[in-house]
Design a protein that fits this description.
By secondary structure, the protein is of the alpha/beta class. Helices cover about 40% and strands about 20% of the residues. A hairpin with a 2-residue loop joins strand 1 and strand 2. Helix 4 packs antiparallel against helix 6, helix 20 packs across helix 22 and helix 21 crosses helix 23. It binds phosphoenolpyruvate and magnesium ion. Phosphoenolpyruvate binds next to strand 25 and helix 26. The site of phosphoenolpyruvate has 11 residues, from strand 25 and helix 26.
């Protein structure tokens, strides 16, 4: 591999050490020079030669370092002690490392090398230019070994003296304890590893970050960009959660933007070093990159990847609208070639025929069956791809059979999305034109994560359902309860397998509506007992799956249009806007017959000993509604003072009046953000034309939630969330920070929500401990 021998004047790769200068300018460097300039230097030189916007730089070569070792007589001393070292002996390792570093730091840099560095620095700029001084170990970034991060980088260096000292510090860092240990474990002989130092104009990035030129896990042609404010160190070191953008190279579109709350940034600190400062509030939640910048970065990334022939991990920075490429090296995480092939290999050549919102994860291939009327669902066969304008509860039997579901309408909280997630069936909603573009019998592949529909079948997509079955319970304990949402009893076992702390929402309308008869039909046809039994049996399945854990069962909440196609649907009122109409508690209070049957089912379950059953009322807008419901239950024989009764907070009025609800006797409250967002922002949650304005993190929504949480905390009332926003890790983290008691998420989101909750709780504890220490 690298064959630099002790003594410094041995032959290396056909070139004599004596031939290589102490300094090489970026323009002179090609990747073959890795032995002299290290991976970083070689890569920068190559990139500059491709015309990529790389800041000016020169490299103090590895040969300069060797000459330094030889001329100062350090070689023998350093290598002798490392030869005898047992790297598993921590104390000895630290001692040897310290001794070697001290030797390097104390030695006088040979005059010739010093002068050449000074001269090169002057050549960069007449006035003292601020530079970054980066170590570049000469075995670094080889395809089979990454030394990245083991040697030092010094930012914001100004003036000759500071520069010379930084170069020497970089040299010394070759003998850091971690670096020595790593090399020993990887089988590198210390004598054969060198260090070059890149001296580069420091770009005072206003925003910066990293970019993977291909997907780091699957190898797909997607550019993943992470960016935040200030210097890129904040992103690289993990001191800030950066924005995350995904650019699809096939469609040349930004397909995902995850805007993080960027609390801190690293900026230059005077003439030397950097400092961590708070980001002003206006920029904390602002988008770091425009689509144009993302596309340009992706293009530069592609140039680098094409040139090197392997996906690259690129550092970038932007100043006054100018993009700089700061570093590029091969991605080491696409280590397993087999992983990168298979499905993604096939997808590279596959044609995307349609796009929508990825609503339930998983990939499945099959034959398209277009359903224009529920009566046609008989045509649906096991493994088909169900394509329809929008699913209805009476389509659930067909939804159970299919491999994937695609709809024209709807967003993340529509019926198709909710049920598909529970069934573990990949789904894409809001495509607008699926029922027109796709043809009956056409073979397609649906990617329910990314919302993409491909032409043809991917063999490896066949076991899609297996891929989306429940994730096992992760052994993470959280103080905030992490619960799960359930709508169909058959999902109860999968839901319980997540290890969730209970059910934060059981939507019972799916139990009823799956029967294809309206509650009114059961009453009109004197089949009340059937209705009660259906409810009782369905709820019991869920209660049995969660012994000893609370299960909040929500009373009926289905807009009138969802009843229309069922037996009895002809008697449903035609409403101009069913979302704002006769649904939830307002309908039950006016239809005591319907409400009483539900209460009858609850009563039987309580009598059977299911104390873990709590009842939650949807669409309450005034405490009087809660009091009225409670009074009716009391009249029907429920021990309301001992029953667990709560409300959904999904109308702004209930968020604002939560204290009055508490005084009226609620035991818990749960944010139904699907509705709370639509009623706060006047955005129809099922209307794909305004889907991009549907914003659970809108300040008005967050303010309502924040205030309601604080009130619940003041009264020691359990406060939860069961809307879709609770399945978003960022939102879950925000809720924990603001004091929520529990979070109820979809089955497929439990693992990541649990992790986000745990991480946030740990951070809160750590910050509190640090604050205590500081006081
Ligand atoms: C909500 O509104 O957030 C909610 C969970 O209820 P649904 O989606 O059933 O309206
Ligand atoms: Mg709701």
């Amino acid at each position: 591999m690298i064959i630099i021998k002790q003594g410094g004047d041995e032959i290396i790769s056909g070139a004599s050490m004596k031939d290589v200068p102490n300094i090489l300018w970026l323009e002179e460097i090609r990747k073959e020079d890795i032995i002299s300039v290290g991976g970083k230097g070689a890569s920068l030189g190559e990139m500059a030669s491709l015309g990529l916007p790389v800041p000016r730089a020169f490299v103090v070569t590895a040969q300069a370092f060797r000459r330094f070792l030889v001329e100062t007589d350090l070689e023998e001393k350093i290598f002798k002690s490392s030869d005898q070292l047992d790297v598993e002996n921590n104390a000895a390792l630290e001692k040897t490392a310290d001794a070697a570093k001290t030797l390097v730091m104390k030695a006088k840099m040979p005059a010739a090398i010093r002068d050449e560095i000074r001269k090169a620095y002057k050549k960069m700029s007449k006035s003292d230019l601020i530079v970054a001084v980066r170590s570049s170990a000469t075995a670094e970034d080889l395809p089979d070994a990454s030394f990245a991060g083991q040697q030092e980088t010094y930012l914001n260096i100004k003036g000759e003296a500071a520069l010379l000292s930084a170069v020497q510090k970089c040299w010394a860092s070759l003998y850091g304890a971690r670096a020595i240990y790593y090399r020993a474990k990887q089988g590198f002989d210390d004598r054969t590893v060198n260090i070059a130092v890149v001296v580069q104009q420091l770009v005072h990035s206003e925003k910066a970050g990293v970019m993977f030129t291909s997907h780091p896990i699957t190898g797909e042609p997607q550019t993943i960009i992470e960016g935040s404010w200030g210097l890129g160190e904040a992103v690289v070191s993990g001191s800030v959660s950066p924005d995350n953008y995904v650019f699809d190279q096939r469609t040349e579109k930004v397909i995902s933007r995850n805007i993080a709350n960027k609390k801190v940034e690293i900026i230059a600190d005077g003439d030397h070093g950097t400092k961590l400062v708070d980001v002003d509030s206006a920029r904390q939640d602002a988008l770091v990159l425009s689509d144009e910048e993302i596309a340009k970065l992706a293009m530069y990334g592609k140039i680098a990847e094409d040139h090197y022939g392997v996906p690259q991990d690129v550092e970038w920075g932007i100043v006054a609208g100018t993009i700089y490429i700061l570093q590029s090296r091969p991605i080491t995480t696409i280590g397993n070639k087999k992983e990168a092939q298979g499905m993604s290999g096939q997808k590279q050549d596959a044609k995307i025929i349609l796009q929508g919102q990825g609503a339930a994860p998983g990939i499945a291939s099959g034959k398209v069956v277009i359903i224009r009327d529920v009566k046609d669902t008989g045509a649906v066969k096991e493994g088909d791809i169900l394509v329809t304008r929008m699913t209805n509860p009476d389509m659930v039997p067909a939804m159970r059979k299919v491999a994937a579901i695609v709809t024209d309408e709807g967003g993340m909280t529509c019926h198709a999305a909710i049920v598909s997630r529970e069934l573990g069936t990949p789904a894409i909603v809001g495509t607008k034109t699926a029922t027109q573009i796709l043809k009956n019998g056409q073979l397609v592949t649906v990617d329910g994560e990314r919302g993409l529909i491909y032409e043809g079948i991917f063999e490896s997509a066949a076991p899609a359902k297996a891929a989306t079955t429940a994730q096992g319970a992760a052994p993470i304990i959280t103080a905030t309860s992490v619960k799960v949402n359930v709508s169909i009893p058959e999902a109860a076992a999968r839901a319980a397998a997540t290890g969730a702390d209970g059910v934060g929402l059981l939507r019972i309308e799916h139990l009823i509506l799956g029967l294809s008869k309206t509650p009114g039909w059961f009453i009109a046809n004197h089949k009340e007992e059937d209705f009660v039994k259906e409810l009782h049996d369905g709820i019991k399945i869920v209660l049995d799956a969660f012994p000893g854990k609370s299960v909040w069962v929500r009373t009926l909440d289905a807009p009138t249009d969802e009843f229309r196609n069922m037996a009895g649907g002809e008697n449903e009122p035609i409403e101009h806007n069913p979302m704002l109409g006769w649904r939830g508690i307002r309908r039950d209070l006016q239809s005591p017959d319907q409400f009483r049957l539900q209460v009858e089912a609850f009563k039987r379950l309580w009598k059977e000993g299911y104390d873990n059953l709590g009842v939650m009322f949807p669409m309450v807008s005034h405490p009087d509604q809660f009091s009225a419901a409670k009074a009716m239950m009391r009249d029907w024989g429920v021990d309301v003072e001992n029953a667990t009764l709560g409300i959904m907070i999904e109308i702004p009025s209930s968020a604002i009046m939560v204290e009055d609800f508490i005084k009226a006797g609620i035991n818990f409250a749960s944010f139904g953000t699907n509705d709370l967002v639509q009623y706060t922002l006047a955005i129809d949650r099922n209307n794909e034309n305004v889907a991009d304005m549907y914003a659970p993190q809108h300040p008005a929504v967050l303010s309502l939630i924040h205030n309601a949480i604080q009130t619940c905390r003041a009264y020691n009332i359990e406060c939860s969330i069961c809307g879709q926003a609770g399945s978003d890790p960022k939102m879950a983290a925000w809720l924990v920070e603001h004091g929520i008691t529990s979070v109820s998420a979809n089955i497929d989101a439990i693992a990541k929500i649990r992790e986000a909750v745990a991480r946030t709780e740990k951070r809160i504890i750590l910050e509190a401990a640090r604050k205590c220490d500081a006081e």
